[in-house]
Amino acid sequence: MIGCLAIELRLRYVCGLAVYGSYTLCQQHSSRNAPSSTPNPNRFNSSNYTCLPGQPCWPSTEDWNAFNQSISGRLRLTIPWAAPCYSDPASEECQKVAMNYGNGVSRTGQYGSVEFLDWERCGHSHCALNSFNTSDPVSGTCSLGRLSAYHVEAKTGNDISKTLEFVRKHDIRVSIKNTGHDYFGRSTAPNSLAIWTHNMKDTTFHKSFQPQGCSARYENIGEIGAGIQAQEAWEAFEPHSMLVTVGAVASVGIAGGYGQGGGHGPLGPKYGLMVDQAVEFDVITADGRQHTINECSDPDLFWAMRGGGGGSYAVLTSYKFQLHPAVPINVYSFQAHFPPPKDITQSEIHREILTGLAANQTLFANHGIAGYNFVLPNHVVFLQVMPSSDTSAIKTITSQWRDLLVSLPGIIITEDEYHSFEKFSQWHEFTERPEISRNGPVGLGFNGAGRFIPRDLFNSSQSVDKLVDAVLSAMQFSYARHGGGGAQLYATGPDNLPDNGKTSVNPIWRNSLWEVVMGQFWTTATPPDVRSPIQKIVSETIEPFKALTPGGGCYMNEGDWTEENWQQTFFGEHYDRLLSVKKRYDPTGLFNCWKCVCGTLQIGLGIGVRVDAAFGGSPGGPHLTGEAPRAFHDPSPHTTEHRRFLQFKMRAASATLMALPLLAVGAHLKHGHEHVHADRHRRAVATEVVVVTKTIYTTLTVDQPETSSSSSLSSTILSTSQFHSITVKLPEKGAPDIVSPTASLSTVPSKAPAKTPNNPYPALASQANNAIIVNSCDYDVYVSSIGDESCGPGNVCKLVPANSTYAEPIRSCYKSGISLKVAKTKALTKPMQFEYTVWDDKTTVSYDISYLDCMVENSNGKDFSACVGHEHGIQAGSGEECPVFHCLADVECGQHAYTVPEFGYLPGAPVGACSIDKGVAFELCAENRT
Fold first, then answer.
1. Which of 228, 469, 517, 916 pairs with 776 at a CA distance of 20 to 30 A?
2. What is the per-residue pLDDT across 691-713, written as a single tens digit (0 to 9) for each?
3. CA-to-CA distance for 219 and 450, rounded, in angstroms?
């Protein structure tokens, strides 16, 4: 059961980032009535919010259409932002995406992208470009990853109220996305109906404002809709000569996780966090009711939403906050380069720079000076920011710091300047320079971790030495393991502004001068074996700071998503009270996000669930016993995962559902192999909606009672401006007639697969304990037998003459099955594949035929002319009582072989199983044998 309950789930597939043994869970296969592993006195009276297509709770088409009408037609079909580049790389749409791929504002302009790629993807399921070279050709399939299949483009409070009513009624999970700036992926959740608040763009300036139900009045109050971003905010209020306490990134939605989780920036030391400015919110609670809350009306909820995190207590629609009279933004900017040391802990340059910065930090904080400090192995960037009418004060206060920097031997100074900007927008334009903005890129993957550094560590030379040692140790640890080594030292917090209990932000922040963030970026071009351990490395990198600050914490929006002690680290002493508010206003756990305030969930896999010990999970997350953590376990007939799935499928009741709406995304149903598909054509490869050149396929397998049956299917054609035609297979129940901004939807009759005669070819004679290929063609072929390193060597390019037989003993692989690749040439170009996998019991073998590497999809459909032996038919079998698969000559073998990757999880999938002592046999040109 998902919600705010600590429960045990039977998880069968996970996907996402294999980091520190943790995974982003994108699909769960669970018993809907799974019991709690231990009694929990704090548990919620929670609903599941796990309804899936095909279950009785799932909305009918009429339900969906009525819901869409109730929100003025604002239900949208999600199309990933980079989809045009998978359909037509030369198109204008693709060029626009590629040109703006690293632009934060552009990335927020649609639901189908987020700022960091790790939270768009789900294992190998994603739709991304190479961030460092967006013109690189894409490969594979464009798929939704963690994005919801449907989202509501909310424009009014009514849209949100109706959406919450709908998901409560049908037990569907809800997610909330504004701009998608999040280190934890809390704004994306597969198997959810998403509320997208980005286009709630109202702004109002109140010269005088009285909160509802309060006697006090405030001067200079800004009011913004939930979707307003930082740049839009300062542009709206700058004409009124007002400052907004935004951060350094223009594209951040300041009323979302920023304005509800804390919100730090260049004005923080002088005016406080964004939550310190809040005077009133308009929100919609889990029951669908609209409220105006402040210190006088619903003070507990108002307190919780002033620092307790977004997406947890209610959906915010309007944020009213204190503005500040504009003053010049005065800046000291310093940059320098130097040779990178072999060992950063022994670098005198780094030690002197960091010691000097730490020694001056208390002085800077006392004068309301913010700091953006980036220290890299061979480069430093320092920005000291002082909002003040006294434009000369910053020179006096930073003079000692500057004297140290310019006197350092062995460095090349590239900037040593003082600036004064009359307007905040001018300051922002300055920070957009590449040498500064490159420290906060978007459109890449990012793994990070942070820690607050309290004021008392800056009070003596001894404590400063310990702090500098920690920074250098962390940098060296990072540098030695993945080539990063950079440290971000933010002095942007509210040290001078105690809140007197008015906000719920972690109290530790009020007494901290630095927020240290360590992290590493990666792209789609980063090899999986390099990418997978990055988060573990980053998590370990922050350990020197944890040792220095026992019982400390970090900013909940810039922490380690694998943090185990997250309640204390992110929320501090406020957690218990926040939990009490959560129970009061969201008793069923409708709002549920990763490591937000939610029941007693302490560890989980991306969507707030606990891992059953049967999966072999550790506190960091699950991985299969004996295997290193991997980003993805491919459940093709070649792999252990697929073998286990088949055993489960044959031994327990299960139902396979084909559905577009709100899929539990994650078990990657690609019929692919780690050792093949180097030249893969574009095709559907995942459980969720997958956008490809021609077809969207969606598949989901879940545990069902024995009485359940599969949904009957219809076929729907979706025509869009980006794709010529996209086929979507939907259940007859639960397919809303929605129109996305670029799509129209119409229904056409379903087509049954063509029937083939029973046993059209002479029976195959298999050999006990052997896998054989009978070459009945009138030409020679080559066979390569490929498994993994655990199988022992196989044959490579073995010549099999016409009308002869290839045989090998059936081999067992730990991580995969065996692929018998067959082609006319030694190069094995576009091979036909015959595949078998030995089960865990060592007595059973499964087998199948695959056309996926030899067939070609074009405008006329599937072309099998390159598939060796297909021109005269192909078959596979094992013993008289075992399943036989046969493919007629020059006919698409839609029910007896893999021509669609997902087919392995459909009813009647073309995978047979028999005892090993019967052997496995495959035949080419089967009609030639009489």
1. 916
2. 322 222 232 222 223 333 333 22
3. 36
